[in-house]
C-alpha cells in the first residue's frame, strides 16, 4: 500500500440503516485513468467523499499515495484534486475569482493566484467567461470551472464525480485529452459515472461497484457470448446467406435497424466469424461489438448470479 496511486481495502460506510458502501476494495494506478462504474445509488459518491477526506469510513483502509486521509487529512488534501458533481459555493464570484480564491486557500500569493487562475481557465477553455459571475455559467461551463478549481494546487491525484455530465461532445473530447495528459504525467485519475459510453472513451481501467460492494472485473470472468453488429454494403443480403457462411441456423441471426446481430464468444470467435463472412463473399462494411466495452462488462456483471448474492 505504498504506491503513488489510490488503494482501498474493504471500506464500509453506513448512514443510519442505509449501508451505502459495504465492502469496497480497489486500486487506481498512477499513470492511468480509472473509471468507477456503477448504477445510481451504488455508492460511488460516498466512496469518493471518503477518498477526498470529506467523510469518515466506518471500517477499512484508504491510502492516497501512501497517505491515510483520515489520519492525515491535510497531507491527503495537498495531493488530491476533488471535483464534485455539482460546483458548490460562491455564485457571486467570477470564474476567475473562484479559481484565484481557491489558489489563495492553498497559500499562493495574490499575484501567483491571479497567474494560476488565468492559466487554468485557459486550460479548461473558459477564458472568454473569466469575468462572468459563476452563477450565470451553464452546467457544462460550471463543470469546467470545477475542474479548474480541482487542479489549482497541481495535485497528484484527481477524483472526479460524474465530470462529463452536462458537457457537449467537444467539451467531452477536451476533458478526455486533459485527463489523459494528466495521467500521462504519472498522476492518478479516478472518475465516476453511471453513463458507461461516456467512461468507455475515457478510461484505461475500471472498478465496478454494485450495491455498495466492489465486484470482480468482468474480464477476469469466463468469456460469454456477446453480440456483434454487422452491416453489409450494397443490396440486401439474406439471413440464410449470413447464417450459412457461419455454419449456423437463420434463427441465430437477428435483424436490427438494417443491420445484423451475431453472437460470438469473445474476440477470437468474432474474428473467425468475420473471416468466414468475408470469405463467403459478403460485402461487410461494418463489424463491431454491439455495445461498448464497459457497457458489455456491466451487463455481464448483471448476468452473474454469484455477484448478485
Ligand atoms: N447522507 C446520506 N444519508 C443517507 N443516505 C445516504 C446519504 N448519502 C448517500 N446515501 C445513500 O447511500 C446510497 C449510495 O449513494 P451514493 O450517492 O454514494 O451513490 P452513487 O453511486 O453516487 O449514485 P448516483 O450514480 O445516483 O450518483 C444511496 O442509497 C443513497 O441514498
UniProtKB/TrEMBL annotation:
Q: Entry's SUPFAM superfamilies?
A: P-loop containing nucleoside triphosphate hydrolases
Q: Does the keyword Oxidoreductase apply?
A: no
Q: What is this protein called?
A: ABC transporter ATP-binding protein
Entry keyword Transport: yes
Keywords for this entry?
A: ATP-binding, Nucleotide-binding, Transport
Q: Which Gene3D superfamilies match?
A: P-loop containing nucleotide triphosphate hydrolases (3.40.50.300)
Taxonomic lineage is: Bacteria, Bacillati, Actinomycetota, Actinomycetes, Micrococcales
Q: Name the family.
A: Belongs to the ABC transporter superfamily.
User: What is a single molecular function from GO for this protein?
Assistant: ATP hydrolysis activity
Domain ABC transporter, first and last residues per copy? 6-236
Organism encoding this protein: Microbacterium caowuchunii
Amino acid at each position: 500500500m505504498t504506491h503513488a496511486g489510490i488503494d482501498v481495502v474493504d471500506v464500509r460506510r453506513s448512514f443510519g440503516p442505509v449501508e451505502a458502501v459495504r465492502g469496497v476494495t480497489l486500486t487506481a494506478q498512477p499513470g492511468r485513468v480509472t473509471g468507477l462504474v456503477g448504477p445510481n445509488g451504488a455508492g460511488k459518491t460516498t466512496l469518493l467523499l471518503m477518498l477526498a477526506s470529506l467523510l469518515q469510513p466506518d471500517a477499512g483502509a484508504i491510502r492516497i499515495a501512501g497517505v491515510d486521509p483520515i489520519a492525515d487529512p491535510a497531507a491527503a488534501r495537498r495531493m488530491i484534486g476533488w471535483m464534485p458533481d455539482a460546483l458548490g459555493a460562491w455564485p457571486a464570484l467570477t470564474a476567475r475569482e473562484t479559481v484565484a480564491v481557491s489558489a489563495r486557500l492553498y497559500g499562493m500569493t495574490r499575484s501567483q493566484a491571479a497567474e494560476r487562475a488565468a492559466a487554468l481557465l485557459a486550460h479548461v477553455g473558459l477564458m472568454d467567461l473569466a469575468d462572468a459571475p459563476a452563477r450565470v455559467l451553464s452546467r457544462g461551463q460550471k463543470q469546467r470551472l470545477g475542474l479548474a478549481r480541482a487542479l489549482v494546487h497541481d495535485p497528484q491525484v484527481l477524483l472526479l464525480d460524474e465530470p462529463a455530465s452536462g458537457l457537449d461532445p467537444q467539451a467531452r473530447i477536451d476533458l478526455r485529452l486533459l485527463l489523459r495528459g494528466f495521467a500521462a504525467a504519472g498522476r492518478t485519475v479516478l472518475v465516476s459515472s453511471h453513463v458507461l459510453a461516456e467512461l468507455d472513451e475515457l478510461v484505461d481501467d475500471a472498478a465496478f461497484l454494485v450495491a455498495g460492494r466492489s465486484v470482480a472485473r468482468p474480464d477476469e470472468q469466463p468469456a460469454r457470448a456477446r453480440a456483434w453488429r454487422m452491416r453489409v454494403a450494397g443490396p440486401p443480403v439474406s439471413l440464410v446467406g449470413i447464417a450459412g457462411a457461419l455454419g449456423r441456423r437463420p434463427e441465430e441471426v437477428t435483424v436490427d435497424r438494417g443491420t445484423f446481430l451475431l453472437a460470438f464468444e469473445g474476440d477470437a470467435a468474432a474474428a473467425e466469424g468475420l473471416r468466414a463472412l468475408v470469405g463467403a463473399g459478403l460485402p461487410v462494411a461494418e463489424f463491431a461489438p454491439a455495445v461498448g466495452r464497459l457497457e458489455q462488462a456491466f451487463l455481464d456483471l448483471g448476468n452473474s448470479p454469484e455477484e448478485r448474492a
